[in-house]
Structures are given as structure tokens and as C-alpha cells.
Design goal:
Helix content: 25-40%
Low-confidence stretches: none
Order of helices and strands: HHEEEEHHEEH
Strand order of the largest sheet: 1-2-3-4-6-5
Number of domains: 1
Radius of gyration: 15 Å
Strand content: 25-35%
Largest sheet: 6 strands, antiparallel
Mean pLDDT: 93
Number of helices: 5
Length: 142
């Protein structure tokens, strides 16, 4: 990860607020809210939380079930990333789905860890939302 790919919220002491998030991710705030709503509509028991994995990454947001993250939202300057970790079964389902070839290529190239393969998708406009919604559904099934 290069040094420009870090959260816009680096201060461990200051948990991001909704108004600060809206200001920082700007025109993509509505897309953030759309992804949040979609995830919680399909998994109403999802637990939302800001977490701070360290100074290198800053504050990030995730929606979890009891034991794993369903989705990570990583705030950046005027946009954000949607991030997923897919186990082997989910990876196969993504690769056989109709999500974009770019997403499939990134997933194929991602290093496999014990918890799975991780991908991050830049969210800068609405066109990526259908693929993200498909990935959320795959994650919820696996």
C-alpha cells in the first residue's frame, strides 16, 4: 500500500462523525449511505463500527456479523473505497458471477491469506454500485 492510500482520519483520538465524513468524502457521501443501507437491508443484524487499526491506516468503517466483517468502507479525500475479504468459496462465486472483469482480475491477483483474498474498489460514482451490491450478496451467502 502506498503512502497516499491512507484514511483521511489519521487522528486516533478523534472518531469520525457523520458531518465530518460528509464533508471529507464530499460528493460520494450519498453513495456511502446507499451501500450502508443496502448492506443493512439484507443483513439487519449487522453491527456498524468505526475502528482504528493503527496510524498507518487511520480510521475505517465496517459492518460486521457476529464473527467477521461483511464490508469495509475506507474514507479517502472526496471518495471512498469499498473493501471485501472473500474466502475460497466466495472467491469462486465472485469469479463465476457477472461482476466486472476488473474486479475479477483484482481478486485473482490478490494474495491469499488464511482469512481469504482482499480487494478494494474505488467508489467515485454510481456506476460501480451494482457490482458492490452483488459482492455484498455473495459475502452474505458465504
Amino acid at each position: 500500500m502506498d503512502s497516499t492510500d491512507t484514511s483521511i482520519f489519521p487522528d486516533k483520538v478523534t472518531v469520525p462523525t457523520e458531518s465530518l465524513l460528509k464533508k471529507k468524502i464530499g460528493p460520494t457521501y450519498n453513495l456511502w449511505q446507499s451501500i450502508r443501507r443496502f448492506t443493512l437491508e439484507h443483513y439487519p443484524n449487522g453491527k456498524e463500527e468505526w475502528y482504528y487499526p493503527g496510524v498507518k491506516y487511520g480510521w475505517n468503517f465496517r459492518i460486521k456479523d457476529k464473527k467477521r466483517a461483511i464490508l469495509y468502507l475506507l474514507p479517502r479525500d472526496q471518495y471512498f473505497m469499498a473493501a471485501f475479504v472473500f474466502g475460497e468459496k466466495a472467491t469462486k462465486e465472485v469469479l463465476s458471477s457477472d461482476v466486472s472483469d476488473d474486479i475479477k482480475a483484482e481478486l485473482k491477483q490478490a494474495r491469499a491469506y488464511a482469512e481469504g483474498r482482499g480487494i478494494r474498489i474505488n467508489v467515485t460514482n454510481r456506476t460501480i454500485l451494482p457490482d458492490i451490491e452483488k459482492l455484498i450478496m455473495i459475502k452474505l451467502r458465504n
